[in-house]
Amino acid sequence: MSFDPAQFKRLERAGYNRIGPRYLAAAGARGELAAALLDRAQLVPGQRVLDLASGPGLLARDARERVGAAGLAIASDISEGQLACCPDLLRVAADGEALPFASASVDRVLCGLGLMFFPDEQAALREIRRVLRPDGLLALSVWGPAAEVPLVETALSCMRRLLPPPKVVRPSIFRFGEADELARRLASADYRAIEIQAYRLAVEFADAAAYWQGFLDLAGGAAESLSRLPAEKQAVIAVAVGEDLAPHAVAGGYRLSSTVLIATARPV
Asked: What pLDDT is attached to residue 175?
């Protein structure tokens, strides 16, 4: 089956529009990861910051506090439904592979767990480089290798086992999970001073139902596809996911520790 990037984007946009405010609540569990990314971005008062794949604007809001009244923070996402959750922020609905911003217009670009959702990541990285000032900085995070990200892979592996191949082919969200590969992609898009660090994200759930709902509230296009299944099939998957969570059981529920890569790079 050939990959159709336009169809993929439509499905992702529909999925994140469907999730709406639920994404905002579920993403709160990643607060420490967001803080770590912002620390690496070296934000100072007065800077202009663009947050791509911003969702409900969590990174953009924290960035706004760091750059202060003299600075500027813009939340940008392909999903208008996500941006509707942050009406207090400057917001621009846009495709990250064709940004509607002037060249050399921002000091920092943030992209938290978003690059793997751009079908053409090289186009997105080139657009980011274009809008960055010559002394600017890109700070992004991506999931590590699938085997080290049970937070997501537990649900995805269960879906692959129980469902036929998806009608809309999806790029792997783990395709930048190896530091060498991520560095290669950044260098190919003319970035320098590339630094990559591994971060361990631990998230706890009271029970299997909470894990499954948390996945659905963050999964975008995958959640959109699941929503179109018969209720009986959705229930079967939910039960199976609960069984697959057994290795992560702790007192009082489940604890899943996953690898995230945080990278910074400067335009050439």
From this structure: 96
